[in-house]
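Hi team,

As requested, here is the filled-out complex form for the acetylphosphate run. I kept the field names the same as last time so the parser does not choke. Let me know if anything looks off before we queue the next batch.

— J.
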Amino acid sequence: MSNESKEKMVPDMAELLANSPKNWGKWGSEDEVGCLNYLTQEEALRGIAAVKQGKTFTLQVKMGDPSGDPIWPGRREAQRLNVLDRGHFMCGCGPRFPGNMEYADDMMVIYLQGSSQYDALGHVWYDEQLYNGFDASTTIGGMKRASVLPLAERGVVGRGVLIDMARYRNKESLDKGETFTHVDLMNAAKAQGCEIQKRDVLLIRTGWLGRFYSSDHAEFYKDFIEPGLTYSPELVEWFATMEIPNLVTDTIANEVTIDPVSGVALPLHNALMRNLGVAFTEIIALDALAADCAADGQWTFLYTAAPLKVVGGTGAPVNPIVIK
Ligand code: UVW
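And here is what came back:
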């Protein structure tokens, strides 16, 4: 079969998701934070009630790591540039201050989606409409609707639950293109001795980022297809019924890159984020947290995060903090 006819068999996103549920209008026509609306004061207190030991974890991967940053193909790694350092003062070109203080300064060139980050709800779309029906032309020249700013201003505080799919399958890491479903998540939770509850922030470890750091980067990116959740109408329904506010994973794009059934790229970005308003958090370091949860048997905790307040941003870096 020619490539052209193979491509013709892949449906449009609009066709695939024709009957997929939407939360548009549920929180008003101006809403830009979607399922974060589920994180009420009661949910913050439920998260706090999950704190049992006072152990803390930060979940951002290093940014501008000289050994490389994991990024979606086509993006560039963060570059940190020194603007001012001792060298400038040694050659007499540093600024002078009364009292002769010296200081170092630097800047960074980053893809806002090129590190641990929150996607803006308007980050992806089809049929010329973003989350909540905003017109896709509002993305031109900087996002005027459903940017990352409202997510950043609201912040995310709730009960988190970590599902370790790699451990559940007795693997260091899931394989390229390996998939799992919401039923697998529930079975893994049971095996861990915990439960995914309504309105939990859902963290899923695949071990995939570990591969980036431990293996040859060319091998990591070869025939790029990440492991992850795979689309089905039942899975979308489950997210909707469970009122999951936020999906957090240790992969670059939170879902298997190409849906193996339809051949469509990133359908869950559209079914969950664009249609339901689930916040997506990607490139998150979960290995240390997972090792600790496996050791003490506590897989639930207080999850807190707020991306940077980038005006018009399609996403923004974040360093979530978990307290067990
Ligand atoms: C894309 O933008 C394609 O993916 P992500 O949401 O992972 O940044």
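Two things worth flagging: The chain has twelve helices and 13 strands. Residues 182-192 form the longest helix (11 residues).

Thanks,
J.
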